[in-house]
Amino acid sequence: MALLQIHEPGATPLPHAAERALAVGIDLGTTNSVVAVSRKGQPEVLRDEKGSGLVPSVVAYPPDLPPIVGFAARAMLLEQPDRVVSSIKRLMGRGAEDVKALAGTLPYELDNDADREGGMVRLKVGGRRLTPVEVSADILRALKARAETKLGATVDRAVITVPAYFDDSARAATKDAARLAGIEVLRLVNEPTAAALAYGLDKQAEGVYAVYDLGGGTFDISILRLEKGVFQVLATGGDSALGGDDFDHLLAEAFIRERHAATGETRLTPGEAKLALATARIAKECLSASPDGQWVLDADGTPTTHVMTRERFEAMIEPLVERTARICREVMVDAGLKPADVKGVVLVGGSTRVPLVRRAVAHVFGHEPLADIDPDEVVAVGAALQAEALTAGLDALLLDVTPLSLGLETMGGLVEKIIPRNTPIPAALAQEFTTYQDGQTGMILHVVQGEREMVDQCRSLARFELKGIPPMTAGAARIRVTFAVDADGLLTVTARETTTGVEQKIEVKPSYGLGEDEMAAMLRDSLEHAREDMEARLLAEARVEAGRVLNAVRAALAADGDLLDTNERAAIDGAVAALEKKLPGTERDAINAAAEALETATKPFAEKRMDRGIRAALGGVAVEQLDARVAEKRAGH
Amino acid sequence: MPQVRPAEQSAAPSGATQACWSCGGPTPGEAPFCVTCRAVQPPGDVDHFRRLGLERAFAVDRAELERRYFDLQRRLHPDRFATRTAREKALSQAQAVSLNEAYETLADPLKRAVYLLHLAGMDVLSEGCNQIADPVILMEAMEMREALAAAQSAAQVELFAANITADIEECVDDLATAFRKNDLDEAAKLTTRLRYLRKLIDDSRARRAGKS
Hints:
The structure holds two protein chains of two kinds.
Chain A: E1 24-27, E2 32-39, E3 42-45, E4 55-56, E5 58-60, E6 68-69, H1 71-79, E7 84-86, H2 96-100, E8 109-110, H3 114-117, E9 123-125, E10 128-130, H4 132-151, E11 157-162, H5 168-180, E12 184-190, H6 191-203, E13 207-214, E14 219-227, E15 230-239, H7 244-263, H8 270-289, E16 292-299, E17 302-309, H9 310-335, E18 344-348, H10 355-365, H11 378-391, E19 397-399, E20 406-410, E21 414-419, E22 427-433, E23 443-449, E24 459-466, E25 479-485, E26 491-497, E27 506-508, H12 516-525, H13 531-560, H14 566-582, H15 588-601, H16 603-634
Parallel strand pairs in A: 1-11, 11-12, 13-18, 15-19
Antiparallel strand pairs in A: 1-2, 2-3, 2-4, 5-6, 5-7, 8-9, 9-10, 13-14, 14-15, 16-17, 20-21, 20-23, 22-25, 23-24, 25-26, 26-27
Helix pairs in contact in A: 4-5, 6-11, 7-8, 7-9, 9-10, 13-15, 14-15
Chain B: E1 3-4, E2 17-19, E3 26-28, H1 48-51, H2 62-76, H3 86-107, H4 109-119, E4 122-123, H5 135-150, H6 154-180, H7 184-211
Antiparallel strand pairs in B: 1-4, 2-3
Helix pairs in contact in B: 2-3, 3-4, 4-7, 5-7, 6-7
């Protein structure tokens, strides 16, 4: 008889799991992106040959050449402003309508034709029309390439971070960008939560911590409880359109006003605008270290000189910083905590280097903030640790929440909240609705996200119609609507009519304007995502499933092998051996067939096991009843 | 008035033996993992207390609740199944959803009281239906609402909120007593009171935000 391999049940290493490449952590930032990897709990930021871990989130589209990403693209920003895209993250998941409000503050030209297509915003860059998803995919491809070069292996899986305050559309858009770049997203993790993971694991911190994350384009504040490897988010808040970029804009506007006052010119040239912004960014960074400075704007052949003090700069940005402080106070109330309950505040994001920001944080929480892990890299480090936790297994566990309330439009344009903000995810909550007209057979469900009570003040995620409700009097139908948020923070809505037993189920993934067809076309066009990729993924899935079947059969044999006679046992052992033989091969169909054959071969065995199990359970009940009767007698009757 | 319907079986389901979807063998219906092959199972229809292994009572030891919740999430959260089969991923998500619902319900005194009454067959009217049947509670609610409306300064609103917070603590203590004595009518009344006190705190918070 063949010797049985006995693994601890459930702990069986998946066959060839180790063969799969390492999974990385990616911080896809507004201004800069970072990729990191963690091995045996040791995270490492993947750097370029100059030692920089940052990849500027800037993409240049030169004519007839592949896109250029990073420092080289940023350097082209001034020479060829019409071919370079920066701060694309601000547009992720936005529709053409949303972006009108941002018009004028964006460093690139929008394609207004997108309005007519009713879809997501498109940019006109160097003669191409691009969606934010495609531009983000180009940045992700560059990060993937860096990781593959540094690690010398294929990298096709990642944990990608998003601002905690990102809405559903922006999250879905981020996932699509990864798909385009040939990266499987293991999990979307909120940036402050990733930072807390990096910080908590590094410092062995316990207790309640706040993470204040002010990046280039977004602001997040999260309150977490750290306890024995569990990172529980208690409350989160933020502003997805507030960041260091706004500081740059205020400074740039001041420079432009001075320049125009000096030259008498009133018209702003595109070159001037980009140069002023670039100069403002440098000035902002200088003013964090020194109390004042002087900069020259040399555009269109006319240089102008500008003096700026930290004091003036701080007066300019004070209202923005105060806005973040107010959000911090509101989130504390949401978490049911006082500043004194918070043990420490972790700073994340380059914009937290601004001294006024640090003073404001210290003032709100009554603590000097902690910044001993590089605020530009801490998020990617946390993402890398989470990638390792998901693939190789680490003890840490992240328990996150929904940042924004999710609801449905009801009569009069009001919002009925189904999942309130700060609900732990994954979550599923249902509510019943009814018809308001006799004989009504359809119902429009309008899914919205936000805290306001009126629909038009919330973000619209999706609109769909539930059809085929049997005609009944008003108020008789029962429509049960379920909102489910998965561990990535992504929403699925299901609706069914329950009174008549005729169930109808619709699943809606909220759209942000990029249709499935469009996505499919883009995937076809992208070289990385050719048929081989798909085949590799299916093969990996087949192996995981086969591993599951083998594990189940081995455990069953170890527990109940005595139920089988020699012939039965030989049949199962034969099927096991056949599957084990196929497993290392690359023929997906053969692996699937062998796994199915094994499952079929064990059917009679499973029945015998169930029989024995049920008999044992019944026996147990009989004994319990007997005990109960004895006890009754003893009680004195 | 609370709506009365038949009480749910207080003795929880017997945890009848079921076939594990993965190895086909017998496993107790309530166990999150198969006893033989350790495959994750569907969450099953279990009340929140039982799911977290706690006694069905209003008094809940917060530290114990959290210990059990964390312990189960450590083993059942979808992050633990990221490299497993699609079916295991879906089941772990269903388990984590049920755990979160149980934890959220039991961690909050108001939700816990509503849930205990529901298990006992009494459904306290949900939010949006602000009908208060008890005349004493109704009178108190109206007076407090007037007091909040009359509060002029931020300091006055602050003082009002502090008083309500104290009332909430007292109300939660009274609820514990009522449930301990199994006086469900009293518990239902107190639950209604707790609900409007909570609403007043939210409103005073909104007022305060408006004033600062």
